[in-house]
Amino acid sequence: MYLMPDREQREKGRKRRLRAERFWWEGRQVSLYLFPPGLGYRRMQGYLRLIVREAEGKAQIWAAPELEALWTDRDIAGFPELSGTGISRGAPLPEAELAARLLRLQPFRETLVVLAGRREGQARWIEDFVQELYPDLNGLYLVGLPEETAERLGDFADWLYGESGLVTCFTDTFPEADGRRTAAADLGAEQKNGLRRIPAGALYLDLTSDPAKKRLFNEKRTDISYISARNCLDTAFKARYNAF
């Protein structure tokens, strides 16, 4: 589900309501919710509750950056179930299949570097993510994994080698690599101190869509192609909306 402002002009005096459009994108069904400007507090709360109820257990919720910027803390108060969604002041981590699709939309790179965070269930997410991508890879690095996560992924690395001959390298720092052939997928790694180790020309997909991380790359590493998951979706869905 993707939430964004409604730019459509309405007739004067006509009551503004939430609109929904549904379409297929990259093999997935997308529900696009268009929020009209000037919604009162109660109507905003009512619409959000309907969306959360529809998404429960079935879909992730994402919000366009400009819509999130319009919401006050009062608008999204009372929604503890929204922790880690696009409504709760920050984008969610994409599902592994969606993350792989976002990476495939970028120029191809044969070496994949996965930068680990500290999220629960990370081992299973990495397995699912790599399974979507490994047939095209010539190099795979898992960086900064907690010890228990690395141990859980040991059997998967053995299976991957037997299946394709692809060696999984576990390391604590970004590997030396040709940036023009390297894509990094960030699951929440702290990059303040490791930024200089990323090779020039690398593609960096920030799956956490962290605004602070974006600013850091824009200020310190303009030689790296930084892309956030939310910006990828925002661009794709706005283009589809404009085509309606």
Jot down its keywords.
4-stranded mixed β-sheet, 10 strands, single chain, 244 residues, alpha/beta, 6-stranded parallel β-sheet, 7 helices
Describe the structure.
The chain has 244 residues and is α/β, with parallel strands linked by helices. It has a six-stranded parallel beta sheet. A four-stranded mixed beta sheet has the order 2-3-1-4.
Brief synopsis:
The chain has 244 residues and is α/β, with parallel strands linked by helices.
How is the largest sheet built, in terms of strand order? 7-6-5-8-9-10
Number of helices: 7
Name the helicity range. 25-40%
Strand content: 15-25%
Q: How far apart are the first and last residues' alpha carbons, in Å?
A: 17 Å
Q: So what's the overall shape?
A: elongated
The assigned structural class equals alpha/beta
Secondary structure layout:
Elements: E1 2-5, E2 19-25, E3 28-35, H1 41-55, E4 62-63, H2 65-70, H3 96-104, E5 111-115, H4 122-133, E6 139-143, H5 147-164, E7 168-171, E8 182-186, E9 203-206, H6 211-220, E10 225-228, H7 229-242
Parallel strand pairs: 1-3, 1-4, 5-6, 5-8, 6-7, 8-9, 9-10
Antiparallel strand pairs: 2-3
Helix pairs in contact: 3-4, 4-5
